[in-house]
Amino acid sequence: MTIAVVKLGVGNTASVMFALERLGADALLTEDARQIGEAERVILPGVGAASFAMQRVDALGLRDTLRRFPRPLLGICLGQQLLFERSEEGDARGLALLPGTVTQMYASTAAPAPHMGWSRLLELAPSPLLDSVSQGAYVYFVHSFVCPLGPETLAEADYNGRFAAVVGRDNVYGCQFHPERSGATGARILANFLALPC
Q1: How many CB atoms lie within 10 A of CB 170?
Q2: For residue range 37-73, what is the model confidence (pLDDT) as tens digits?
């Protein structure tokens, strides 16, 4: 199986690569449109600003490659946010694989932004991505912007309000949290992604 991890220069991709290696997967870190387009799985990770990430996507000529990718695609953290139509962060135009706008997280004195730490997965919907994942399982988040709830929401989380923690439609999936840093639950989700049919 060929797994392409998209190299955008935003965030630490090493932890994603190590997590895939622990699962016995052979992944390629690449920014090459041909390698990404021909892969059996694509993971779009990221930490940082949506506007910069999408500028990199366009500079590398990856927008159409990612939009037309027909096999399982997983966005992680910022990568999930890029799946949507738009982000308030720098007024970025996303990949529009999922409908809606990513908005700035509400912050309070009791729960400041960014949301950094462990939170529970709530309201899990049936999905092969979440096979053997328990309601209330804890996963690790680092983010200041949130994806909208909608028909594509597979799991929610709550931090100053509910938001989409896991999304999915057709071959496109996303995790707002970092599965590669989320212990056994994160490893299960990554393993489920690798097991999805092409």
Answers
A1: 11
A2: 999 999 999 888 999 999 999 999 999 999 999 999 9
Q: In order of start, what are the domains of the chain with their CATH numbers?
A: 3-195 (3.40.50.880)
pTM tops 0.85, yes or no: yes
Q: Distance (Å, rounded) from C-alpha 190 to C-alpha 183? A: 11
Summarize pLDDT for 13-43 with one digit per residue, the tens: 999 999 999 999 999 999 999 999 999 999 9
Q: Is 178 a catalytic residue?
A: yes
Q: Which of 77, 147, 152, 175 is catalytic?
A: 77
Candidate from 42-56, 85-99, 102-116 with smallest mean pLDDT? 102-116
Which residue in the list 89, 152, 156, 180 is annotated as catalytic?
A: 180
Q: What is d(CA 37, CA 113) in angstroms, rounded to the nearest whole number?
A: 36
Q: Note if 77 is an active site residue.
A: yes
Residue pair 60/36 in contact (Cβ under 8 Å)? The answer is no
Tokens representing 55? 């500028």
Residue 8 φ/ψ region, left for φ over 0, alpha for ψ in the -120 to 50 degree band, beta for the rest: alpha
Q: Decide if 40 is catalytic.
A: no
> Which listed residue (89, 123, 178, 198) is catalytic?
178
